[in-house]
Amino acid sequence: PSLGSCIESGEKVCVRRGHATDDWFSRTYHKLEESGQIVRCDEDPWVCALRQECSLVVQPVMLYELQRRNIKYNEDCSMSRVSVGTLQYIGGGWMTKVDYGTKCTSLLSDALASHMLALQAEGDLDAYMDELY
Question: Model's pTM, two decimal places?
Answer without folding.
Answer: 0.62
